[in-house]
Amino acid sequence: MRTCRIPWPLIIMNLQNTMASNNYDILALSETWLHDGFPSSMFSIQGYNLYRNDRATRGGGVAFYCKSHIRISISKSLSNDYIEYLWIQLLGYAREASIGVLDHLTGTSV
């Protein structure tokens, strides 16, 4: 089983510092390796909401961190043994906007 050698709190602290110093509104992540055994509260970052779609099998996974004031709707998500994706739609703006993140198992076609 793959393990992370850097403690999760340090990863989250570094991620939070990077997001704050660059004033990111939304950050998309792939290869999160998260699953039901990892509650979202373990990865909370002040001022951001976490939206995630974990792979049904080992590895993979996708997620978004969105600033708390940004209203979004999950428009599409899929997760199976080969692929997972997550699409969010930004709400309350004059123009419609959707953002997606995708991950697929190496060696498979999408």
Q: How much helix is in the residues?
A: 10-25%
Cross-sheet strand order for the largest sheet: 1-3-2
Low-confidence stretches: none
Structural class: mainly beta
DSSP, total strands: 6
pLDDT average, as an integer? 84
Proportion in β-strands: 35-45%
Q: How many whole angstroms does the radius of gyration measure?
A: 14 Å
Largest sheet descriptor: 3 strands, antiparallel
Total count of helical runs of at least 4 residues:
1
What characteristic shape results from the CA principal axes?
Answer: globular
Give the SSE order as H and E letters: HEEEEEE
The first-to-last residue Cα distance is 25 Å
What's a concise summary of this model?
The protein is mainly beta. Helices cover 14% and strands 37% of the residues. It has a domain at 23-97.
Task: Supply the key terms.
1 helix; 3-stranded antiparallel beta sheet; globular; 110 residues; mainly beta
